Amino acid sequence: MKRPRLLTPGPVNLHPAAVRALARPQLHHRSSEAGELVRELRARIAKLANSRGEAVLLGGSGTAAMEAAVRGLFRPGARVWVPVAGKFSERWCEIARAAGLEPVCDAYDWGQAVPPGAVPARPLDGALLTHSETSTGVLQPLAELAARFRERHPEALLAVDAVTSFALTPLRMDDWKLDAVVLGSQKGLMSPPGLAAVVLGPRGLEALRPAGYYLDLARELRAQRAHQTAFTPPINLIEAAAAVMRALEAEGWEARFERVREANEGFYALGETAGLVPVPEPGTRRSPAVAAFYLPRGTPYVEVSRAFAARGWRIAGGQGPLKGSIFRVSAMGYFEPGELERAYGDFRQLLKRPT
Ligand SMILES: Cc1ncc(COP(=O)(O)O)c(C=O)c1O
Hints:
- It is a single chain.
- By secondary structure, the protein is an alpha/beta fold.
- It has two domains: 5-12 and 253-352, Aspartate Aminotransferase, domain 1; 16-250, Aspartate Aminotransferase, domain 2 (3-Layer(aba) Sandwich), CATH 3.40.640.10.
- It is built from eleven helices and 14 strands.
- The protein has helices spanning 16-22, 32-48, 62-73, 87-98, 142-152, 202-207, 217-225, 235-251, 253-273, 301-310, 339-352, and strands spanning 5-6, 54-59, 79-84, 102-107, 126-130, 132-133, 138-139, 157-161, 180-184, 195-200, 291-294, 313-314, 316-317, 326-329.
- Strands 2-10-9-8-5-3-4 form a seven-stranded mixed β-sheet, with helices on both faces.
- A hairpin with an 8-residue loop joins strand 13 and strand 14 (326-329).
- Helix 1 (16-22) runs antiparallel to helix 8 and helix 2 (32-48) packs across helix 8.
- The longest helix has 21 residues, at 253-273.
- Pyridoxal-5'-phosphate (PLP) binds next to helix 3.
């Protein structure tokens, strides 16, 4: 059976450069060619994050990188601020608790932007922020939140989930004084799931301590500085992600960011014209990674997802409290020429007649 094409906010349709890389003969991870790919990808990721620091690659999904960052940068008992406005900021909170930290988890409405004025004045060891909240479609005001946090807590560490912002919208680690940023391969890098990374800025590198075993960033950093990895890495995914970054760099990152933003706004324009209500509250910035809409009253999610499926597309529903009340589509993956227009055409049809 033909597989549906993905309009999901991760994983996404693979970039042809990834597909070509994956079709190559298996590389041995201790070969010099593999070492060169590790070096190249680490350098490319740190450069795209606009960081003077270093990227550490990990086998695992984005959540592995979140956990590795929390355990490597903070000790049990550390007080970290986590503004929770969706599924993934909630995950920061859960990871921090599981690692024995004392997170201060402040709840906001899902769909809301976290106001920079909300940064607590009480003493803190750090903050865990989410740049693009994929569960709601909100692009949080990261630069402003980070600036306010730095003002109030100059010594504390700032870690950011950039899983659906990296390679999709500008990320300025040095300018925004971020100490750690996490990402995964199956979103803006248009590669299969299973590879994650933590980019550590100078203060993040300094604060890093050994923690755990497989997800020990300090151990990985040591190995990767020698163009090795501590364990068998997902070398095929490293090769794929490096190939995609090469291809996207050739196109130009600014052009790519603009193209993804426009593609996503294309879905919003169609939905809003037809009377659908976006999940991001009016006045908030929208993530380029996903367009999220409330379901029309009386229309269950399965009806919408089936209608898309009948036309060859897979979409995503809501998570947590938004499960059953929203649907999400994404244009962050790869589309063949004309394919996105076909997706818009099908969406337009569905908006007229949902089944
Ligand atoms: C913003 C954000 N953070 C973290 C994650 C978790 O990543 P993974 O599913 O790769 O563990 C996701 C996945 O959708 C995400 O969108």
